[in-house]
Amino acid sequence: MNDLSADWPAPAKINRFLHITGRRPDGYHTLQTLFQFAEPIDWLDFTVTADGVIRREGGMPGLAPTADLAVRAAGVLQSRARVAAGVRIHIRKGIPAGGGLGGGSSDAATTLVALNVLWGCGLASATLEELGLELGADVPVFVRGQSVWAEGIGEQLTPMDADRPWLVVLDPGVSVTTGAVFNDPKLTRHTERITMSRFNALALRNDCEATVRRLHPPVAAAIDALSAYGPTRLTGTGGCLFAWFGDRALAERAKKGVSAYGTAWVSRASNRSPLLGRLKTS
Ligand SMILES: C[C@@](CO)(OP(=O)(O)O)[C@H](O)COP(=O)(O)OP(=O)(O)OC[C@H]1O[C@@H](n2ccc(N)nc2=O)[C@H](O)[C@@H]1O
Ligand SMILES: Nc1ncnc2c1ncn2[C@@H]1O[C@H](COP(=O)(O)OP(=O)(O)O)[C@@H](O)[C@H]1O
Questions:
Q1: Residue nearest atom 13 of ligand 2, based on CA coordinates
Q2: Which CATH number fits domain 3-160: 3.40.50.720, 3.30.70.3270, 3.20.20.70, 3.30.230.10?
Q3: What's the pLDDT tens digit per position in 70-87?
Q4: Domain ranges of the chain
Q5: Cα distance between residue 161 and residue 222, in whole Å
Q6: Superfamily, domain 166-268
Q7: Which residues, judged by CB distance below 6 Å to any ligand atom, belong to the binding site of ligand 1?
Q8: What residues bind ATP, as annotated (predicted)?
Q9: Nearest CA, atom 24, ligand 1
């Protein structure tokens, strides 16, 4: 494998806040949220092959290659750009699945961006975002690789650089089904829309939190434990959560303090995905 094809990062995302502002006639909920990037990170290696077949190695245990969003992303790009070559995708998972950290979406985006280069497709980033949206609401954010204010069901993106606190991301090991949260009759669905200038992490919340707390007591316990150290929010529809701090030492202290509640990572919230840096060196 040459250097060009190895070590493409697929970072996690966090939702600094998440408001549900309404419901469309098709049942999908409209949101307002601010996405930033953080650790943990998945790493992908690509080996271009001549036979046109898309293969996957590693990845999420128990997930069939045909269901893997990275494999599906490669397939979408291959047919859109009429690529004759194939690829072997090796995935080293760092991001827990189904936790609201967007690992599957991030793997899909990294695959689109990397193979666009390695297969020589030459598609514009906006086109890759469009292809990504077919795979999941969060994929375009990862393709763009820049922190964004998102509206609609996540397809209306406006770049927004936010503050960059130190984070503890905590995975209580609970997989939350997004559909179950959005179907909860008690979910807060009509939060008033706000303008970007009103972003204030302390004052804003994640509207899914009350539902997730009720459906998953271990997540509620983890939120309570981490809240003792710093302001804490759920990311996406959970079950992962994060707290933010003014410096790294405080974050490391909190990480130690919540070790009984799950796996935790310390990193700085980022407005740029490491994928963009990797793209520059390709
Ligand atoms: C809400 C976010 C924020 O990042 O949650 P996380 O997935 O990150 O936790 C995402 O936009 C999630 O989008 P996505 O990941 O594509 O959602 P899916 O799993 O496909 O949605 C499963 C089901 O949830 C409901 N759903 C989903 C998104 C939405 N805006 N409104 C909905 O009502 C629909 O019933 C849908 O069939
Ligand atoms: N490469 C992948 N990594 C993780 N999950 C994947 C991948 N491809 C498909 N999936 C599926 O997507 C689901 C949601 O994964 P993920 O994006 O990590 O969750 P969330 O949207 O809650 O952050 C997983 O439960 C899994 O079935």
A1: 98
A2: 3.30.230.10
A3: 999 999 999 999 999 999
A4: 3-160, 166-268
A5: 28
A6: GHMP kinase, C-terminal domain (3.30.70.890)
A7: 15, 27-29, 31, 100, 102, 136-138, 153-154, 178-179, 182, 236-237
A8: 96-106
A9: 179
Ligand nearest to C-alpha 89:
2
Ligand 2 site-directed mutation target among 107, 110, 182, 234, most atoms within 8 Å of CB: 107
C-alpha count within 13 angstroms, C-beta hemisphere, residue 108: 28
Catalytic: 13? yes
Task: Give the active site residue among 68, 107, 138, 171.
Answer: 138
CA 44 to chain centre: 15
Is 256 one of the catalytic residues? no
Q: What pTM did the predictor assign?
A: 0.97
Between the CA of residue 178 and those of 28, 41, 183, 189, 273, what are the distances in Å?
11, 21, 9, 15, 24
Residue 143 backbone phi and psi in degrees, to 5: -65, -45
Which tokens belong to 268? 């700085």
Residue 197 CA to ligand 2 centre (angstroms): 32
Query: pLDDT tens digits, the chain, 282 residues: what are they?
Result: 446 899 999 999 999 999 999 999 999 999 999 999 999 999 999 999 999 999 999 999 999 999 999 999 999 999 999 999 999 999 999 999 989 999 999 999 999 999 999 999 999 999 999 999 999 999 999 999 999 999 999 989 999 999 999 999 999 999 999 999 999 999 999 999 999 999 999 999 999 999 999 999 999 999 999 999 999 999 999 999 999 999 999 999 999 999 999 999 999 999 999 999 999 988
Question: What's the gap between Cα 105 and its chain centre?
Answer: 6
Ligand 1 centre to CA of 57 (Å) is: 27
Which of 45, 68, 153 has the most ligand 2 atoms within 8 A of CB, as the residue to mutate? 68
